[in-house]
Amino acid sequence: MRGEGAAGSSDSSEASATVRVVNPQGLHARPISCFVKLSSRYSCRISVRGPGGEADGASVLSMMSLAASQGAELAITARGADAHEALAALVDLVTRGFDEA
């Protein structure tokens, strides 16, 4: 994880990190579903930048557009009151290979 930061009050917290996709199949339906499900537990807005552009971390269809295969870098940004907590959980999920690696 790199590039974590914060700005402003707790309502406008921002945290970001860059992680590498480690699971052999990359981002496909199951890991994307896990990511979106975990994202939905938090009130902050989550965006993800990958090889296919930028996606809404709360949308399966949007995340599918990232086209991230094994080894691809994902830049995850969380904005809102629970941004740091959400980012930590999502980084953990990705670095664990969505429990597929």
End-to-end separation in angstroms reads 18 Å
Structural class: alpha+beta
**CATH class annotation:** Alpha Beta
How many strands, what sense, and barrel or not for the largest sheet?
A: 4 strands, antiparallel
Low-confidence stretches: 1-10
Secondary-structure topology with pairs:
Elements (H helix, E strand, L loop, with lengths): L13 E7 L8 H11 L5 E6 L2 E4 L3 H5 L8 E7 L3 H13 L6
Antiparallel strand pairs: 1-4, 2-3, 2-4
Question: Any key phrases for this structure?
Answer:
101 residues, Histidine-containing Protein, Chain: A, alpha+beta, disordered N terminus, 4-stranded antiparallel sheet
Describe this structure in words.
The chain is an alpha+beta fold and 101 residues long. It has one domain (15-99): HPr-like (Histidine-containing Protein, Chain: A, 2-Layer Sandwich). 29% of the residues lie in helices and 24% in strands. The chain has helices at residues 29-39, 60-64, 83-95, and strands spanning 14-20, 45-50, 53-56, 73-79. The protein has a 4-stranded antiparallel sheet with strand order 1-4-2-3. It is globular, with a radius of gyration of 12 Å. Residues 1-10 have low confidence and may be disordered.
